Amino acid sequence: MSPVNPFDDSAPARAVVDATGRLREWNEAARGLLGYPPGAVLGRPLADLLVVGGPPFPDRDARRWSGSLTLRHRDGHSVSVWAMAHRPAGRDGAWVVVVPRNGDSAEGVAEDPLIRAALRQSPCATMVFDTGLRLRGANDAMARLLDVPARRLRGLRPTDIGSRPQHTELEEHLRRVLDTGRGHDMRAFMKAAGESRGAHAWSARLAPLADGEGRVRGVCVSVHDFTEQHRARERLQLVSEAGIRIGSTLDVTRTAQELATVCVPGLADLVTVDLLDRRDSADGRRPPGTPIRLRRVARASAEEDTPRIAGSGRTDDYPAGSPQAESLTTGHAVAVPPLVGGTRAETSPGAGGRDPVGPHAILSVPLRARGTTLGVAVFTRFGHPEPFTADDVLLAEEIAARAAVSIDNARRYSRERETTLTLQRSLLPRALPTTGAVETASRYLPAASSGVGGDWFDVIPLSGTRVAMVVGDVAGHGIPASAAMGRLRTAVRTLADLDLAPEELLAHLDDLVVRLASEPGERAGETGATCLYAVYDPISRRCALARAGHPAPVLVEPDGRARLVDLPSGPPLGIGGLPFESVELSLPEGSLLALYTDGLVGGSDHDAESGGALLSEALAAPAASLEETCDRVLRSLPRPDGDARDVALLLARTRVLPCEQVATWDIPADAAMVAPVRKQVLDQLDGWGLREAAFPAELVASELVTNAIRYGSAPIRLRLIHDAATLICEVSDSSHTAPHLRRARTWDEGGRGLLLVAQLTRRWGSRHTAEGKTIWAELALLGED
């Protein structure tokens, strides 16, 4: 036999009034109360049922209301009732009006031993529901939370008391407990009735109530306010989150923004971070009354329509007595409680004055790390502010201390990076030389997140209008890598002046890296490097290349076809003892050669093969200039590890020196042929229109040919080369003995020839070839030196 529910015939009268004041819902209990069937009242204004002169119904700004109403019965007499009203969720402007039945009767509550025991023994806010989910009783603690007398709640369901989602959820959990006979825990976050402060954290325990026969007759709901415990957990979670999110990069602005973002809205509605100038950071203390200049670097807000607050980048002076100045001067956090019933002047910089933004609580915390004052973080609460508690201050100081260390690390890194980058750029070529052999363009992008690396490139003019192109990558980051790069670049230039073949130059460079690695204080593996070296001759159109563990270059032919050059990889520099191999290519005029470091095409999320394909595609596309091609390459290839690796790119478009600008003679090994050679040189210069260079060119050619006849071996060959700025005289023979410049004594018959050549030319030298050697000298044409 089912238990009897004493409230089955006492359901509360319930009506719903829309935003226009018209009735939209009307239950049977309401009909029993006033005698109107639903069809007679739905659509009518509620005012038609209110007795004129009775207590007013709440205005449209209220959210909850309770009180006495005088209603008009269908037969004409007045009915005075106690009613409560609340706004349902999702129905703007509407009201749910509930009139409890038997609301003035408290009998039964004290007489029911089950309820009496539950209410008397409960240590917290308690209420008891029957099997119909109607409230049978509530203790005084619960009545205070609901802000309604306990006797008025009798017979109401949770959704009669309020329309929040938590009320619907409570009904669902009550049904579950009644059906299963097992208790249930529920948590909710909401304000207590009549409070304007922030929402409380509530924990409710729903326990079944059984009679002597074990039948579930109701549910006891015990509610605990665990707001402080909840806030403590939130603080611990915020500290943990701050440890994870703050300091993810070595960027000052981003670290400050992480500090501001992580504290909104958990600690404050608005957080701003202002930093001192580096010159002021060493000592946060200054004479009393002195304004403090701060630069805004970060801000975060919980709402879009926050009061007007200066954005990042603005610099302002904070007067003495402001929270920022006081916290920086004292070195301690300064909490300003909210101003009740008035306004407080804006403490953050605004345009042209101070803006009243309403009551708000302010907490200013200095940012200090390693004995240095860096700036201040300001936490602001507005709207319905709560003062910052002692626990809030400790939390803000803990987060600010962690952030200050990260900001200081970022500043130190930025200074070291600036120093390294300055060193790096001073060691790289400021401008590429202009040569008749190639047209060049380059780009260098330093790493941002892991420190400047050792990527480098160079273009080196060689004898005979040839040009050397080199790209390298030194292992490591920072100043050591930049210094090692500078040593290698200097070594390459020195070795290039010896006119060594690419594979020979890399072998000498490898020996140098091995020696550098063996020096005291060097760590194994820190001086390793890769390198690609190429030499192009615009006369023969031949290009010799060799590499030491470096990515292969990309060759784009004049018809637009792009391919990787099939070039033996070779070991990285610093391995020692292993040979290098070179490849010689014949390049048509207008060919494009791309040399680069692996930061451009390879990485953790971008493999070298696919990166090489993207590079080839970008290089093959037509462009107005090599500078435009460089920009397109950098746009088309995303840096595979973000900005964690350096990128060096060198593009060279080949040119060809016309045969009309080269003259060659084979000379017999006979001293009598020197005079005819001088005559041939003069005639050739006349043909080129270079008569102004005839005198020094004649003397240089005469001396070099004489030396070759006297000290060299046949065959002997003389070659004149000229471009727009230079006249080159080369004499080759089959001897491998190189000449040496020396100063002749007064009575010496020889030793003056090369000294004369050195005085008449811009530069001179010798290079070994497979057949012997070549002595060369360069003369600057008039107006070019």
Quickly describe the structure.
With 785 residues, this protein is of the alpha+beta class. It is 29% helix and 27% strand.
Please describe what this structure looks like.
This protein has 785 residues and is α+β, with helices and mostly antiparallel strands. The chain folds into 5 domains: 13-99, PAS domain (Beta-Lactamase); 113-225, PAS domain (Beta-Lactamase); 231-416, GAF domain (Beta-Lactamase, 2-Layer Sandwich), CATH 3.30.450; 429-654, PPM-type phosphatase domain (Phosphatase 2c, domain 1); 659-780, Histidine kinase-like ATPase, C-terminal domain (Heat Shock Protein 90), CATH 3.30.565.10. A 6-stranded antiparallel β-sheet has the order 13-12-11-16-15-14, sandwiched between helices. α13 runs antiparallel to α14 and α18 runs antiparallel to α19 (753-760). It is elongated and about 145 Å long. Mean pLDDT is 81; it is low at 1-9, 103-110 and 341-357.
Low-confidence stretches: 1-9, 103-110, 341-357
Q: Report the CATH architecture of the largest domain.
A: 4-Layer Sandwich
CATH superfamily of the largest domain: PPM-type phosphatase domain
**If strands are numbered along the chain, what order do they take across the biggest sheet?**
13-12-11-16-15-14
